[in-house]
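Record type: monomer structure entry
Structure origin: computed from sequence
Chain ID: A
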Amino acid sequence: MQITTIGLDLAEHVFQIHGIDAAEKVVGRRPLRRSQVKAFFEALAPYLIGMEACATSHYWARELTKLGHEVRLMPAKNVKAYVKRNKNDAVDAEAICEAVRRPTMRFVRVKSAEQSGSRSDAGQAHSAGGCFRLRPEQRNHVWSYDFVEDRPHDGRKYRMLNVLDEFTHECLAIRVVRKLKAIDMIDILSDLFILHDIPAHIRSDNGPEFVAKAVQEWIAAVGAKTALPRAGQSLGGRLHRELQCPPSRRAARRRNPLHSPRGPNRHRELAAPLNTIRPHASLGYKAPASEAFVPACLRRVAGCATPTGSAGHAGATGQH
């Protein structure tokens, strides 16, 4: 049995392929990491490859066409009819593989790099929301910040400003406030720039605090660049969920964070659970700054002086 058709389901990190032969029998299924896709298809004979049309599919269609494959893009709404069971990546790839062979299927024309305005070769790609997604390449390359709102038992609303390093996934700060003006935003960023150095890019949504003229001019003056989505578009699903995840909302309702002891290390206490406990899939399900516990017996053998130590951020992110 020889593969004749492949359904390719695109994702942010791990793609899924589904291959069938001329008799439409399943020949192979497997996941592929983004870095493995080109090498995998280079080793294959020319096949028919189907994908759902989206912003990044045009880039991959051009790349796979260069390798000699025939690539067809289909509207996602037309592929949905071929999903047979609970939706996941493998099921989506199977539906794509079946849909691309249907003679009545409507296909989407592949756009050139100039038509789509693609910047993928420069390390950028479209997010699910359609905005250009700048991919972080190192620490302090891309920061993101956003607000999350909640109410404790007294019913008074408060806001939490979360600042995140997208490469290391480290939560740099969580500031709890009732209101925040442009000058307050500048004060918070200036403190972080002194502590962590100035990032190359700062990403946010189009909230009034982020697009304020004073904030934009100050960020440009210190040498950083802003990355804002187009009007009506969001940051992207995964990044938005990560920024919208405070340490513990239930704990926040039990006691008002605005009434917690104030001090220079207050924001570090709020961010500690995100940096030392909460696992990240892209870090091998480790926390950004994993804490290493050394048992007393091993500590005596190794000559350690303290019961706990920090493995450091490099240990958790060395795989990058």
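Annotation 1: Residues 182-196 form the longest helix (15 residues).
Annotation 2: The chain has two domains: 5-116, 134-284.
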